[in-house]
Structure formats: C-alpha cells, structure tokens
Specification:
Helices cover about 5% and strands about 60% of the residues. By secondary structure, it is mainly beta. The protein has one domain: Porin. The longest helix is centred in the N-terminal third of the chain and has 6 residues.
Length: about 210
C-alpha cells in the first residue's frame, strides 16, 4: 500500500479587508476568493504548503458603524493576487497512510507576496494608478478531515497582516495631499472558506514499518 505524502487541490470562499475604509469586522467575507494549493506532508504533524489565491477586495464607509466614516462616505475596489509559502501544523496526528478516518485542527503561517492595484482616492472614489506589490504575514486557523482515502476537506480562516497601507487608497506614495485615515496602521485582508485536496505519492519515511 502507498501513502499519500502529497496533496493538491483548490480553495473556495470569501474575502474581506480591514483598514481605513468601511467596517472593521475581522471575519466578514463580502467578495469571492479562490485559489489552488499544494502540500508536502513531511510528518503526521506538519506539512510544507504553497498556495496561490486571488480575490476582489472592496469596502464602503456606508457599512461602517463609525460616525466619522459614515459622514466621509468613501469606498474603494481593489484586487489581490497572492503567492504564499509556509508551514502547516496539525494539532492531532494526521497520518494519511492509515485507512481509518482522520480529523484535526491546524494552524498555518509563513510569508505571502501579493500583487494589488496602486490606487488613490479622488472625490470619494478610488482611481487606479498602476500595479504594486507587497509582502504579508498569513495567520490561518482551520479544521480538516479525510472524506475518503484520497480526499481531504478543510475549513479555514486566514488573516493577512500586510506591509502596505494603500490597498484602500488611503496612503498613495506620490500624493501626500490625498492621504487620509491612520497612516501608522497597515491594511489587513482575510480569506475564509473551504479547501478540497487530492492526496497522492509514495509511502513517506515516517510510515515505514
């Protein structure tokens, strides 16, 4: 019998943003997000994980509970295309070589590199000014279970702390007079949804008889 040391699959869910425009609820998906991922299960407790995820990122002051933001009434639209690489840690043994069902909570972190539109706000509406890139730190928690011998389903929420403050058009680098909001606080975005992966590969060393 061969064990499944590799996993490849898809992510489907929602995305939301936290920053200087709109509401500040951390888990409030309002746009579709989707992607692909690959895992190499180094042991029953940890796996190296690579993923590509993209989503449209939007927010509106009119949905905020802050009186100042309601009066300002800004909105923006951006897009994020993210590459992420890091380590996934399982709280329980998740040995895919075993025939019996498996379930475990897990956490994931690493480093993300993403593309987004360089935008600025003019007359209360965001305008495009090319494409920019930045880094982010993903912090993901989830649960996963084996559906069959070859399929694993997960449910996860992953926040990203970014190294930019201009996903929302509040801090354009070349337009000082158009800046607004808290310029000392960077933006966040969140991917929450389901993963479905197919397992394959040779019997790993940690399963050797």
């Amino acid at each position: 019998m061969h064990a499944q040391i590799n996993e490849i699959g898809v992510f489907l869910g929602g995305a939301n943003y936290i920053g200087d425009v709109g509401p500040t609820t951390y888990i409030a998906p309002n746009e579709l997000s989707f992607g692909i991922l690959y895992k190499w299960n180094r042991s029953p407790r940890h796996a190296y994980r690579f993923s590509y995820t993209q989503a449209r990122i939007t927010s509106r002051d009119e949905k905020s509970k802050s009186e100042g933001r309601l009066l300002r009434d800004y909105d923006f639209q951006n897009s994020v295309k993210e590459l992420s690489l890091g380590l996934e840690f399982n709280f329980f043994d998740f040995n895919l070589h075993e025939m019996k069902s498996k379930f475990t909570p897990y956490v994931y972190t690493g480093l993300s590199y993403f593309f987004y539109e360089d935008i600025y706000s003019f007359a209360g509406t965001s305008k495009k000014d090319g494409t920019d890139t930045s880094m982010a730190i993903p912090m993901t928690v989830g649960v996963k279970a084996k559906l069959t011998q070859s399929l694993v389903m997960g449910l996860e929420v992953g926040t990203r702390y970014t190294f930019t403050d201009n996903i929302d058009s509040s801090n354009p680098s070349d337009s000082q007079h158009l800046k607004f909001g808290n310029l000392d606080s960077n933006d966040w975005y969140v991917f929450s949804g389901f993963t479905l992966t197919y397992t394959f590969g040779e019997k790993p060393c940690y399963c050797a008889d």
